[in-house]
Description:
Elements: H1 3-19, E1 27-28, E2 45-49, E3 52-59, H2 64-80, E4 86-93, H3 98-106, E5 110-113, H4 137-149, E6 151-152, H5 154-161, H6 165-177, E7 181-184, E8 187-190, H7 193-203, E9 210-215, H8 221-231, E10 239-241, H9 243-251, E11 259-264, H10 269-276, E12 285-289, E13 300-302, E14 305-307, H11 310-318, H12 325-334
Parallel strand pairs: 3-4, 4-5, 11-12
Antiparallel strand pairs: 1-2, 2-3, 6-8, 7-8, 9-12, 10-11, 13-14
Amino acid sequence: MIENEIKDIDKIVEYIKERLHLSDNSDVTKEPLPNKIWTPITADLVIKDNLRLFFIEIRSKPRLDSIFRLVTLREILEKQKEDDSEYNFVIGCKVIPPKVKDLAELLEIKIIELPKNLRISIPQYDIFPYRLKVSSEKSWKVISNLLKEKESSIRHISKKAKVSYAWTYETIQHLINQDIVERKENYVEIINTDKLLNGIAWERPFNNLKKDEIFIEYNKTHEAAREISSILPQKNIKFAFTCFTAGGLYTGTAIRTDSVYLYLLKEDIEFFKEIFDTSKKDGIKALIYLPDRDVFSDTRSLEKVKVVSPSQTLLDLAGLGYGGRDLALDMVKKYGSI
């Protein structure tokens, strides 16, 4: 996301407020609903104007599923409403397909046509803070740098993480709202590591990245990781070990496991299996994961094993949930010195 896109979002908000004839007191709200109201669906944008709430989808070209999402959201909210709030549902878009327009009119969803010069970034959660994911690449850079610094200003974290101040601020504010980070005058610090790790496990389950697993002909995991780290560079194959394999090396903690964990690109998996797979169906396993971000640019060599960065290792361990919790907490404890 670039800074101009943030400004365009402000322009979109003002344009929509003007078209809806909202009062001067109206504004974007991050917590539009009481905690007792639950919904699995969120809008891209929520504007509150006294007792009126406007749930808004922002799209360049909306599809029918945009209508369906808002109708479902309306049903869920109306069934749980216990006050006098008035819920309104809106789609802001640049063009309006005829079928979408007809269905919106039938189901009483208001459509506002946006000026063509305003940029809309996809996915929407990259713009709007209440859909922010702490496990996203930029947000995790912010969080991992705060873990390393322990206590710091938002501006300092922004510079260290090389992430825009706006993004850093929204990430930190999101964590403050979740009671994970606490502000002390001009400084912030993480106060609830368990809750942070739980959030990562829910947002980015590491096993969702698992692509394959094979038995390999080694007796010890460290021996396997070292030899694989020696062989794969000969063929210019991108790889890096993670999770327990990397975490044990970073912390010096002896991990009892019968598997090595590594990232490979999809096109290299068959070659890896051809070289290392064994017909023996017991012993050491290689668990293979597909990266969902750049994990290869910031690797390290520890005891002749190529591992992902401490930040990526912690993220992946957190993604294992309670299965990786002890080692993840050990990494957090030692994070400043790794």
